Task: structure prediction
Amino acid sequence: MSFDVSTVKALVFDVFGTVVDWRSSITREVAAVGARLGVEADWEEFADRWRAGYSEGTRDVREGDRPWMTADEMHRERLDLLLDKFGMTGLSDKETDHLNRAWHRLDPWPDAVEGLTRLKSKYVIGTLSNGNVGLLVNMAKHGGLPWDVVLSGQLAGTYKPDPKVYLSAVSLLGLEPGEVMMTAAHLHDLHGGAAAGLRTGFIARPNEFGVGSAKAETVVDDSIDASASNYIEFAEKMGV
Amino acid sequence: MSFDVSTVKALVFDVFGTVVDWRSSITREVAAVGARLGVEADWEEFADRWRAGYSEGTRDVREGDRPWMTADEMHRERLDLLLDKFGMTGLSDKETDHLNRAWHRLDPWPDAVEGLTRLKSKYVIGTLSNGNVGLLVNMAKHGGLPWDVVLSGQLAGTYKPDPKVYLSAVSLLGLEPGEVMMTAAHLHDLHGGAAAGLRTGFIARPNEFGVGSAKAETVVDDSIDASASNYIEFAEKMGV
Result:
């Protein structure tokens, strides 16, 4: 480590892609609904396009181009479009809502629960996601994620990487920015955290966008304080 | 139960006095500091007057008579006054801050961890306290309180029993008011929750203000949905 680990009191975690494997979980759920409706399609493409709606939505809110919307609302908006585009008709509103909540049922990466549990023995651990609080709470129940606290862009009224989100988390924890470390598989998120004064830890998730996809980041730059290939290795680096 | 328990999805908990025994913990910590400084006094009275500063502070903020302050800030303001009044001089700022954080180190009532753990197996469980988030997170680490989510008046910018606080919790959880049950040892808190449409559960804490104190409420009125003498009994009533 290039810094004194003992200065860190809390770790906050990006969630989608970093702690949970959204693409496999979403692909599985939409494929199951497709099979039930008798529709054949590239369900990984469905998952990627659904995810893209969320990425665009958080960017538009952050940049002031759209009023506040939660992740649940963005997911539903894009889901309605995609169901139509993929010819998936006949779902009731209740069934569509259940499918929309597939984002509440994402499975953790295999190392996540063990790594977080170890980190929790020494640090405060919390989400710091653009997902809304209810989504993150339900996901933690689903996957057994042992958060001490659920923090979200929702509590700052905007989205990462706006510095307001990181500073809101620091303030709610009653800490100084340098006492909090942001961990994520995405450099833009870590750069946002660093710009707000937080420590940064990179976790490589090479298969986030599919096995072998070039979209995953695997190389960090010098600005990142620590990096690891999973949360068990990261916990070891953090002294637990 | 006078209602269908299966409609409840989340339980939110008052914390000071309901889940943790603030008076014994605070009395013990201030007595230890007093002994170190060679001061003799009625430390239960000190604890009660410290607690009163917080109660008055949250009321003044709620009624718009003071700008926003966190529980930590109110505790520190009153602590400085009381240290002076009790002739406790010579503490460094760091020592005073540590004493102020005695409110982060309150011990749970003996039934709390077991009762909450049982309730967590079926329901989302979260704080809904006027304490600030950082205080509640540190207290959970200290006492092993297994919250799924830490909700606070701080997230609504005002204090219970303002309906905004209960409705903020409901909204962050993504639920309807009737799907959330407020539990507390204090009727004014439950009446505030009920006014916002929440279900209500009373937990008797006859010794909150000292053994045999008439200040503790022990009898509920007809508006309360459920009551129990501790969280283990309450968990049984809630079907877990």
